[in-house]
Amino acid sequence: MRVNPGLSAYAEDPESAGRSLRELLEFGKGRVPKDLWAETKIRLMARAGLRLLDLGVQNRILNSCRKVLRSSGFKFRDEWAFVITGTVNCEFMVVLVLIAIQMK
């Protein structure tokens, strides 16, 4: 599932970024049994859009997201929300392509 706009769209209002995760969290809650939420790890790995922003803005956006994720009911630690490097982003894309090929 993908939600638009991305986190970088909150550069002018970083404190609102966390609210944008609510739809994703509800999607997850609809698929993970409630009794497993507390042991189900949730991570946020932001990509290129956030990487392009000023470090201070990045941190404010991530902190807003961390606040929402901490209260989500899922297992979350602050260090699990971060901006991934371009290299890691490419590695994830390769994995996704391989998964898509296997699903054919």
UniProtKB/TrEMBL annotation:
User: Per the UniProt record, which residue ranges are transmembrane?
Assistant: 80-101
- InterPro entries tied to this protein: GDA1_CD39_NTPase
Which GO CC terms are listed, alphabetically? membrane
Q: What are the record keywords, sorted? A: Hydrolase, Membrane, Transmembrane, Transmembrane helix
A Gene Ontology molecular function term of the record: nucleoside diphosphate phosphatase activity
GO BP field: nucleoside diphosphate catabolic process
Q: What family does this chain come from, according to its entry?
A: Belongs to the GDA1/CD39 NTPase family.
Its protein name is Uncharacterized protein
Species annotation: Malus baccata (Siberian crab apple)
State the taxonomy lineage. Eukaryota, Viridiplantae, Streptophyta, Embryophyta, Tracheophyta
